[in-house]
User: Fold these one by one.
Assistant:
Number 1:
Amino acid sequence: MIKGYIEHVAIKVTDLEWFLDFFTTVLGFEERKREEKEGQISQTWLSSNIAVLQAIRLQDSSIDSVVADFFDCGYQSTKYLVKKGCKKIGFINGSLEVMPYRDRYKGYRKAIKKYGLEEFVHEATLPTTKYYADGFMGTKELLEKHPDLDSIMVAVDMQAMGAIRAIKKSGRKIPNDIRLISLTGHSIDSILETALTSMEIPAIEMGHYATEVIINLIESSEETKRRRQHIVFESTLRERETT
């Protein structure tokens, strides 16, 4: 029998019905209660003796987590562009209902206010699987409304791919006319035709640490339970051709 446990899990995700079915049908969780808003589930409480760990994003402080500092990612990226001389910094983000996007925006906003600049934000309206299209349409929209933008930040790499296409179609050059940076970078960014500057999350290191935490949860007993762990990893700026 698995010894790790979680008494109550509060799940807040876009497709809650699918996640609820997965947790109850596949993992054997039991639904204790739920809250509904406008006829749809807004939150549900589950219980199980299965060890649970939040990875990448923190949704519930009562559950152990190994996450990235998305606030700092947004703040440091904006600060970096300001030091590059940028004064009109656009931001193509995801839905603010999702924690990582919300924290990235908060970091961006703090830096923008610190340097006395103006916000230029496009919040994603397309489904989360349409990153490329959202990056393209978001960049096109921002440049049409604010043709003097000198830089753009995007939340994820696939948005950056769409942004690059839109910038080139507008007749602008990267990075001479406009700088571009992704806030969720991967090593593949370095081998693109135009190598992408990005904030890279230490995914491998986080995976190793998360494995250690979940094993400790599984092996712990009622008598040896310890305080919740919330480990936060910082992203690293990788400067490449787009800035």
Number 2:
Amino acid sequence: MVRWCYASEYKSYHREREMDIRRSAVWLLLLLLAVPVEVSPPFRESNPDSDGAANTLTEADLSTDGLPADSGLFIEVVSSPSSCMVKANGRMVLYREKLDGAPPSLPLTFFHEDHSTDGMYVVTLHPVTGRATGHVFADGHSADGAFHGVQEFVQHVQPGRVVVFCVLAESALSMDSIGESLFTALNSSFAPDIQLRSMFALVAVKGGPVVAEGYNLNLDALDALHPGYTLRLTTTVPHTTETVCKELKKPENKERLEFCQKYDGYRRLCDCGSPIPIHYPPKPFDGGRFSSSQSLSWQ
């Protein structure tokens, strides 16, 4: 009889404990469901303690849907350790991404990454349509005149064009006296003294002011394995009408004008001061006669 009482109390005790555990689990589940979950927006400000999750682009950032440009040209620039992106009125005009495969474990990661896409990218935009008219690249790991091509390209960009700079991973290692002179002429506040693996972005108007500039200094640059932090820059270039010089308005420059409205980077072809001459050589004989069509060429 005594043994049966002890067994009955034992079963009752554990049954109550089991019910308490179930009630606690239900309350915990209800508590978790009641706590609001914060959804992080794309390109949230980088956290120095994070593992670089903020350095990746989302699908929304790769959208190419155009937006109205009634109030001006809305420019978005992203410079990060893994990609470089420029959008104009919501339309993607430049996107570059690292070509890394699966790197080995640290500390040999850096030496097995692909750095061929690292550097500073420049893209020029039409001030009215926002379409890309040209682009150039300065290798971020070459100290042998990497910015010479950038300087020549910007020098021949037509006045009024929007010029956008962004960095992918690294650009300080290739910053030479040519690059410093270029950014000094553009009135840049940060680029002449850019530091290792620091992100930079600039939006300017050729022959006009700097519209916006951003710089994210990598305070952990002494750590050879630290990639740096993502920088996002947004600005609006005031809406303007395209100015065409008198030389290009001449009837004989009709085709030149159509070409120069769409493209940059062809040196003196679109130079209003002293444009190079254009020749129209006839095509080879076609059935015993010269072809009626003409081809555009320049020297």
Number 3:
Amino acid sequence: MKIDRLLPRAIMMSLTVAAALTAAPGFAAAQTGGTICGTVWRDVNENGKHDADEPTIANTTIGLESVGSNYTNTDADGKYCLRNVPPGAQVLGANDRALMSPSEGWTISGQDSKFGFTTGRTQPITVADGQTIEGIDAGYRPARMDVRASQVIIEYGGKTYTSGKDWLTAPVQVGTEFLIVGGVVPDGNVAEQLGARLTVPAGLTILGQVGGMPATISGQTVSGMFHERRHPGAVEFLGVRVRADGEFSPQQIRLEALKGVYADTKPANNILTAKLSAKDGRDVNVAPQKDTMAAPKVVPAVVPPAEAAKPVAEAGSRAGTAMPEVTTTASELPETGTNPTPVIALSVGLLAVGGAGVWFSRRRFA
């Protein structure tokens, strides 16, 4: 005889619920994993500290990098708590607010903000089951950005020529190979995704790319853009090795700085040009030759003392404050762009996405 025919229906339902609860994971605990809490604020004076008179930011998103569904928005006081955080080393991300109003970027880390200046991510945080960790705060600063073209460089015949200083006025010799490099810089107070476009005269054949910016070549133009944000004031380079395959009268080398996610306050300084010509014959100043320069050397990034003591988590870390513009030779350019990719346009659709729809694990800055 079956037991369900003997027991009243109410008793059977009670036993079923009790069995389900007993078998459920974490039945004896209020929650599983740990909790991470903090405050998000606007760093008005940009010192990296949450001063008493600085406002908090409500309804902005903080999330776990390892668990895409674990994110939360800050409350009216700018506070958040991520619950049920799996035990172990966890990385948090703060929402990208570049396309929001007002446009903002992550403030400098190492003071009250625990989120990276260029990445919006924390260092790994070790969480134990049942542990609550407080003070994982995030600061944003109002964004100011001016992306500009800084210099065009030619390395030819063993010499380096720089636009606006000691430019090459004599024609290059047909048949010779040399380097043309452009420098672009993000001037501002936030880390910017930076790109460039370099176009060379039609009489030159592009043989390959040089410099650290990931790029693609199409016809007489090389175009590139960094995926990660770059420190303000740091000059980045995009260049090509070329060969003069025919004579041509003076034509423009054109360098254009390409903005990333922030509004460019001075677009008039995005373009820089310099003229170059080529001639076939012996009546030129430089004898025909192939450039025999050494392979490009990697220039180490400059890291301020406050950042040097921390594990490096921010790609391409350099000083968080404006750096002086540097003039370099093409042979000293860092060769860090190992995965050439086309310039990526940001979708204007992001402007319409709010809250969790654009939190950090859903975006990679384009």
